[in-house]
Structures are given as structure tokens and as C-alpha cells.
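Model: Ready when you are.
Researcher: Fold this.
Model:
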Amino acid sequence: MEKAVVTGGLGFIGYHLCQALLEAGLEVVCIEQPNETSIQGMDEKLLAMGRNALFEHISGDLDKEDSTIADRLSRADVVFHMASPSSKDSKWPMKHQTILQATKWVQFLCGSMKDDARILFPSTVEVYGDVPGLITEDTPLQPVSSYGMIKAEIELCVQKEAQLNNLNYTILRLPTVYGPWQRPDMTFAQILSEEAEVYQDRSTLDALFVDDVVNGFVLAAKSTNQSDIFHLTSGEQGQWFVAAQKLGAKADILKRTHSRSSLSPKKAEQQLGFNVTVTIEEGLRRQKEHMDKWNNTWDI
């Protein structure tokens, strides 16, 4: 693995992933939609990575199937498809339109990639719906939210298009991810920002620090498995609520609205060598430090 493309590379997880790939000595092409002006710290992120000769930023539109993007895709050993129509993916009225748009993106990406390259897609544990007990990768999908349903449909599209285009795929089902640059509408960020009204995240099954998640993506990209699906999880029950409680969340935020469930970590541990290394205490401290630094920068 020498060349990587990261769609949505200036987003929350995408930015940390680009940094990790650059540190590992890979050539990285970061693709962002030209109208995504709301991305936190875009200029700061580009400045941090733009100093690296291995980094290339392309402001391109996946809807328009840009020829420059297609060229970079054709040279990549791995494509991390982190981009999503995130402003729409939790809204019921936009469900069908969002699936059509996301499907078109996957078809363009897979159709442009070279044979035997790998596409990695971040899905969500919300594809399982409200399932009690231990959840494995073989647990039937029963999504109940629009977000879970959309991700489940994109998973199927990734698998189909990878097969049609002689590619390998890896789908990583993620819980809530937190850390520096977490979206401001996420619960932990809301509490740390001392928002007057705090809302519970759409997924409260588990919580992982972004560095651990990025490590999982890198391990999956290096894997010799042809195509597969994995959880990235702490393997512990109620970690999201543990973190929220440590932040001083109010009782309504700590109220469980789903069955008591946990995600099995065994498959990712055994086949990818994935293990969680950042404790909740350490992760929350690092997120708070970053938010304090960022807010102070704006106050100057």
C-alpha cells in the first residue's frame, strides 16, 4: 500500500486518517466537496497537511464524476470513502434521495479504481437496530433509524460494486466516535461547549476515540483479507454512557432508550489485530484540551 485516496478527508475522522497515512509515508489524495464551507478548521487542517510533499488536496464534486478525481482513483491502492451527505443522512424525507446520491458516489469510485485495489467504507452499528445481548458481525441487520437504513443500503452497494469491478472491500461498522474536531452537534462536544440544550447522539451503543478508529482503518487497509465486515468497538457495555456521565451529563441524556447490548470485538481483534488503546478519561481530556485551544484561538 503506497497510494491512498480519502474522500471527505477534511472531515472529523477523515482528517485524522489523512494525518496517520502521511505519517506512515503514504501518498495521500484528500477529496472534499467544494461547497463544504462548514467544515471545522478547514484552513488549519489544510495548512497542517499541505506542508507534506506526499499530500494532495482536490476540491472536487463526486456528483459530477470529475476526471481529475477519476485519475487519482485509478492510481490508488486503497480508497477510504469517508464522504457522505451528512446533512441529510438522518432525515426521513431525504432517505431515498440520499441513498441514490450515495449509491452514485460508490459506483463512480469503484468504476474508476484499478483491479484488486481496496475500498474501505465506514458504516454504523445502527444497522443492527435495537438488538439485545451480544452483537456479532453475523447478527441480522434490522435498522430502525433512517441513518441506519441508509448505511445498510450503502453497504450492499459497496459489496455489489466491488464484486463487479474486481475490487476488495472492507466495511467497518462504527459506534460513536469522539476526539479533537468532533462535530459540534455531537453530545460530548455539546457538553464540553456548555451548550444550553444538549441532545443525545443517535448511536449510544459504544464510544471510541478517533485515534483508535483510525488505527482500525489502517489495519484493515493492510489486511490480506479479500473482503469482509468488522466492528470497531471497545467490547464493553455502556461506554458511551460512562463517558457522558464523566462529562457531567444530565439525567435525561443518561437515560437509555435501547436494549442493553454490546458489540463483539473478537473478529477485529483476531483478524486485524485491533485493540483499543485510549481510555475514556484520556480521550475526553484530549478532546477538551483541543476544544479549549481552538476556542482560545478564536477569542484572540
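Researcher: Now this one.
Model:
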Amino acid sequence: MNIRRALAVGAATAALAGGFAASPAQAAGGTAPACVIRSVSGTIEGFSVYLENTCRNTMRVQVIVSLAPDSRCYTLAPGDWDVYTYEGITGNYDRTAVC
């Protein structure tokens, strides 16, 4: 009986641990502040996101994409900008997060 109980506890612990594993989107930081301007435009192949840092500090941000890999982490000094382009049929813009 003790072996069955130990196996059941072990299985339950493994199931719970798996249930709390972070997905890629959850692993990223919180949503970027409003001083990071983002403008999403649809393209024939997917979408592009214009990112501009109007914050007082350097910001590290990443585009979170649902159903596809997220962007790399962009380091933007105050006044800097960059464009992330996604090409694919499954991904959708989710949000811009700090990283």
C-alpha cells in the first residue's frame, strides 16, 4: 500500500509541475510600458511591428507572437526604433513585452 501511495503522490506531483510549466509567452516579462510605441501592420506574408522607445531609459522589448516563435529581444535606447517582421501563416501579434 505504501508503494502505491508513493507512486500516486509522485504522479500527482509530476502532473502539477507540468501544469505550471511556463509557455514561451508566459516566460517573457510583463507588457512593455506605453512609452514604447508599437504599431502593427498586416503584410501579405504576415505582419510587421514598428517599435520606438520614447521612454527616458533604455528598454529591452520583445514581440510576443501567438502560434509561432516570439521575436528576439530588442535593446532600444531613448529615441531608437526598430521593426520586427513576421513572415508566416500561423502567427498573430499578441503583445510587446519587456525582456
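Researcher: Key takeaway?
Model: Helices lie at 2-19, 24-27.
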